[in-house]
């Protein structure tokens, strides 16, 4: 069948950022489906025309729409609307047997809805974040009218879709609270790419050497967006406390975003910049395995808001795939997994000193690190294999397409 796959921020492994759609698309193509990604190109190119490329057995349709994490809220909304309008016609022209739209942003539903309007084509909608609940909770969407319209669009998306994919149990609960039918929601979390992260130990050693980080010092890493939702300043504050406990511990923070300069300034004010805290530019996804191989423990942090507990951060699953322990600073389903399976730490969110003690004691215990890493890899293979989760997605898409065909012939 032909799958029209809408994702505004699609990335290949040669780009930095999530590659969930890439990994799923190539597996859907390998299963025999004709897959067409409709996405945006965010680089320097200024052409407003569509271009296509063949990638791993599927086709990617690109339209230039500028976007970056440090844009203002108004500029982001403009980018969302611009892409939604451009993608609507392209998605409809492709005439898929099923349309699969993945958020964020929530506006991705608009071109998907248009693509199936007055047709019997089924629509499957994927929730990567609890939109608009998260931007409302974090204060990004304050206007009551805008909130009302966003909730209307959310409910329309849930009711119009033949099926919903949620990236966490919490996201499923949120969707059902706002109109989704529980029997039409399947949880497919982010995945662990064990093959990608199965690198020789020498890769991590080489990474440390190239960044002048001694091979024997404890290394705590973060790889991801440096935005308000992540509040990576938390790690800088923990690093300040950790230095008094063990001055050798290094925190390597890799990423970019709206809070990058705030983080840099905070590290400088605390006398940590370029010593205890190393800030690094993001790298393509295929270079992250060496970075994680160098780590003793990885981290995934969010701002102090209960709405963030349902997140399904890629860095969490990348850590499992790399066989590395992980530390997070929030509750929810990932915290429960960490505690149940012994794969890392749930850090104190409000007490930096307590969090630093947790972290330093953990990285100084080599046997504990080894055990947690082994448990992390076992968990990656048993519950979060990319192949298994891609097969689950394929089953959903094939099922809704088959139901549509049965209705047409019945």
What does this structure look like?
The protein has helices at residues 20-30, 73-94, 109-116, 133-137, 144-160, 169-177, 194-197, 201-210, 233-245, 260-269, 288-294, 314-322, 333-341, 352-363, 366-383, 386-409; strands spanning 2-6, 34-41, 50-55, 58-64, 98-102, 123-127, 163-166, 185-187, 219-223, 250-254, 277-280, 297-300, 325-328, 344-346. With 410 residues, the protein is α/β, with parallel strands linked by helices. The protein folds into two domains: 2-191 and 385-409, Rossmann fold, CATH 3.40.50.2000; 194-383, Glycogen Phosphorylase B (Rossmann fold), CATH 3.40.50.2000.
Tell me the number of structural domains. 2
Which fold name fills CATH's third level, the topology of the largest domain? Rossmann fold
Percentage of residues in strands = 15-25%
SSE order, one letter for each helix or strand: EHEEEHEHEHHEHEHHEHEHEHEHEHEHHH
| CATH architecture annotation name of the largest domain | 3-Layer(aba) Sandwich
Q: Provide the residue-averaged pLDDT.
A: 93
Report the CATH C-level class of the largest domain. Alpha Beta
Q: Quick one: how many beta strands? A: 14
| Spatial separation of the terminal alpha carbons | 19 Å
The CATH homologous superfamily of the largest domain is called Glycogen Phosphorylase B
The total count of helices amounts to: 16
């Amino acid at each position: 069948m032909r799958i029209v796959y809408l994702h505004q921020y699609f990335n290949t492994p040669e780009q930095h950022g999530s590659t969930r759609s890439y990994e799923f698309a190539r597996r859907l193509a390998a299963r025999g489906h004709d897959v067409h990604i409709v996405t945006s190109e965010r680089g320097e190119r200024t052409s407003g025309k569509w271009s296509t490329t063949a990638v791993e057995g599927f086709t990617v349709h690109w339209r230039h729409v500028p976007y970056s994490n440090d844009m203002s809220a108004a500029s982001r909304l403009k980018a969302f609307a611009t892409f939604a309008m451009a993608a609507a016609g392209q998605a409809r022209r492709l005439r898929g047997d099923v349309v699969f739209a993945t958020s964020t942003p929530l506006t991705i539903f608009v071109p998907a809805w248009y693509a199936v309007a007055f047709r019997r084509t089924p629509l499957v909608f994927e929730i990567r974040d609890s939109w608009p609940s998260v931007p409302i909770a974090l204060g990004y969407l304050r206007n009551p009218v805008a909130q009302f319209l966003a909730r209307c669009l959310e409910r329309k998306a849930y009711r119009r879709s033949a099926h919903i994919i949620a990236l966490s149990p919490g996201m499923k609960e949120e969707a059902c609270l706002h109109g989704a039918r529980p029997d039409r929601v399947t949880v497919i979390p982010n995945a662990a790419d064990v093959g990608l992260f199965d690198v020789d130990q020498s890769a991590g050693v080489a990474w440390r050497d190239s960044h002048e980080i001694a091979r024997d010092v404890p290394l705590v890493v973060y790889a991801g967006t440096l935005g308000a939702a992540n509040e990576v300043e938390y790690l800088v504050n923990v690093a300040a406390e950790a230095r008094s406990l063990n001055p050798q511990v290094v925190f390597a923070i890799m990423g970019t975003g709206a809070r990058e300069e705030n983080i840099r300034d905070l590290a400088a004010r605390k006398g940590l910049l370029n010593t205890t805290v190393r800030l690094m530019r993001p790298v393509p996804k295929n270079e992250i395995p060496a970075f994680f191989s160098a780590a003793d423990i990885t981290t995934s942090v969010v701002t102090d808001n209960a709405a963030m507990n349902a997140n399904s951060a890629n860095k969490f699953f990348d850590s499992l795939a790399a066989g590395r322990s992980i530390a997070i600073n929030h509750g929810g389903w990932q915290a429960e997994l960490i505690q149940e399976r012994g794969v890392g730490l749930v850090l104190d969110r409000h007490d930096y000193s307590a969090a630093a003690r947790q972290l330093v004691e953990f990285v100084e215990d080599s046997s504990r690190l080894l055990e947690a890493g082994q448990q992390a890899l076992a968990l990656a293979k048993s519950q979060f294999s990319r192949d298994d989760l891609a097969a689950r997605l394929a089953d959903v898409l094939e099922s809704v397409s088959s139901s549509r065909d049965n209705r047409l012939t019945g």
